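Appendix B, record 7
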Amino acid sequence: MARLLLAPMEGLVDDVLRDVLTRVGGYDLAVNEFIRVSGSLLPPRAFRRRCPELDRGSRTTAGTPVAVQLLGSDPACLAENAAQLAQLAPAGIDLNFGCPAPRVNRHGGGAMLLADPEQLYRITAAVRRTVPPEIPFTAKMRLGVRDTARTLDCARALAAGGIVSLAVHARTRVEAYRPPAHWEWVARISEVVGQPVVANGEVWSTADHARCCAVSGSDDVMIGRGAVADPFLARRIRALAAGGEVEADRSADWRELRPLLASFWQQVGAKVAERHAAGRLKLWLGALRRNFVEAEALFQAVRALRCVAEVSRVLALHGVPVLPPVAHAVPDAR
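Structure tokens (predicted):
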């Protein structure tokens, strides 16, 4: 079957959650949360810090390739940083033209660039000249800032600039993450660009995936929040594509998820300050509640807790094994 991609999600899917989700399996590629490029050449350690997989051949522990996403608005600066990043041999270099966050948009980055197709072309063409042909060069866009008046012009500009694939989050900036996703626009974009187009937005289930492919005309789908809420979604999609069946009862999936929750908690403890660790766990459990009643019970049990030891005790009571702490990673000085 065609590709399933794990979406970049700022503040939600970092290297820790990428590790856990790709261990479940089913994804052909993951894209890291964006690295902001603004006025200076970033040192190699800045790329490694945001995408530690670069030190493992640009792959997660399970072997899933990870492309690195850059966000910025200055063509020359983005090109210079892309050249620097290319020396680290990422599995791909992606440009972000879709982030709707106000803190990004007020500086002219992310989805705000969709108001200026000519600037999209200048950025893409400048970066294309610095990215070696053996490294896939891609982009992600939304349908526009407030409307779809320039959607096709933006897609054409990115294609003309030299990308090899385009992911389309099928909503405008002002629509943010409100349903529905307008998958029919993916089909319209595919008609005007020669490159593969990946559909993204509102894929929460195997049924959503089937509808997305049918409406968008694309077999390539990027999954974001749906992957966080259901770590087994990609695997379930592949099982159906292979002629198999998926269980309505998710109890077996929850049993498989418990050691992955344990690994997530262990890695979070090694990565973030203790005062932030519980919040990271609650964020994921809050998403998992959509599919697992056990996650709802666990979320309610840890909701008021901040102490790592207390959270660990509650996890153990709910059948999540508590793994020994691992050493904090030491940033590469290069």
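Remarks on this record: The mean pLDDT is 95. The two ends are 40 Å apart (CA to CA).
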